[in-house]
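Sample entry (384 residues):
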Amino acid sequence: MDFALSDEQRQLRDEVKRFADNEVRPNAVEYDVEERFPHDIVEKAAEMGLTGTTIPIEYGGAGYGAVDSVLIAEEMFAADPGIALSVLATSFGTEAIQEYGTDEQKERFLEPVAMGEAISGAAISEPDTGSDVSSVSTRAEKDGDEWVINGTKMWITNGSVGDFFVTLCKTDPDADGRYNGFSQIVIESDRDGFSSEKITGKMGIRASDTAELVLDDVRVPEENLIGTEGAGFYQQMQFFDATRTGVAAQGVGIAKGAAERALEYAQEREQFGRPIGDFQAIQHKLAEMHTDTEAARNLTYKSAWEVDAGGAPNTTLASMAKEFASRIAVEVANEAVQIHGGAGYVNDFDVERFYRDAKITQIYEGTTEIQKLIIARELQGKGL
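Predicted structure, serialized as tokens:
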């Protein structure tokens, strides 16, 4: 088994780390406190190709694979989760266009995102529909050569800053089967009837934009339909192996950032005339934090490798990586605060923010409970 990164991957990781250390980390507190989307940092990231990491080269993107994307996410999230998500999620939702879109759709939607000229989003969740994607009630009805869309979407990343959203809609309410009759349709945010309201007061990832979308008789041309009508649910499911591996990488990055900061603090902070890192209780914490982070990293890298390898999807591994890495992110961030003591409870130190940011990795892209259900069902051969 070869665990070594290629020279190109090591170079990519080092370049992203330099960018994160120079552009992301110094500005993290400001954007977190103000709950402000970091447009200026996104513009700089676009120059490095970080706004279109998985978009094919022919459409202006970097064309990176899953392992490359994991390396990028880890370094960015180790600097600051909120800004990292803002940067890397500028292409959120474009996976469906890459896989099922027409050449015209790819040119129209992918190229602006890759160049940093547009921000995309995926509008799936609704006020009454979180993990149960098959209960989406937003309706899209055909009227001549247009789709007329009505519904409300909730917890939408980039909701108030995005230029277009790949939206899961019910296009055939009479379709047989629980998972049939859904379609994915691109809705531009400048369409009549489209409105968004930014959600503030979030516990973490405050730099990342989250909003509620209201679709009131929004009309889009029929060519905004992605792929086959009625196949939207299955299209969505196809990408979870990659996206959940991506969230696992976020968890690894958060754990890495928290563990590194805890180690640095333990070597500098003195009590009873010596660095607290000399005390066995702190040493045990540091050992466990770094060991758990490395374990999560290896599971995540393996899942990413499986995605790149193609073939049959390894849903079990992706869910294992997501569940484990997100849990480790929360646990390591918690211990980092504990090592900092009272100083870790205020935003003078990054660990306070990492502690708040870590929790979301156990919620979005499928909650921890959903991941455990998926793993158990896959083990028993009862998956979707």
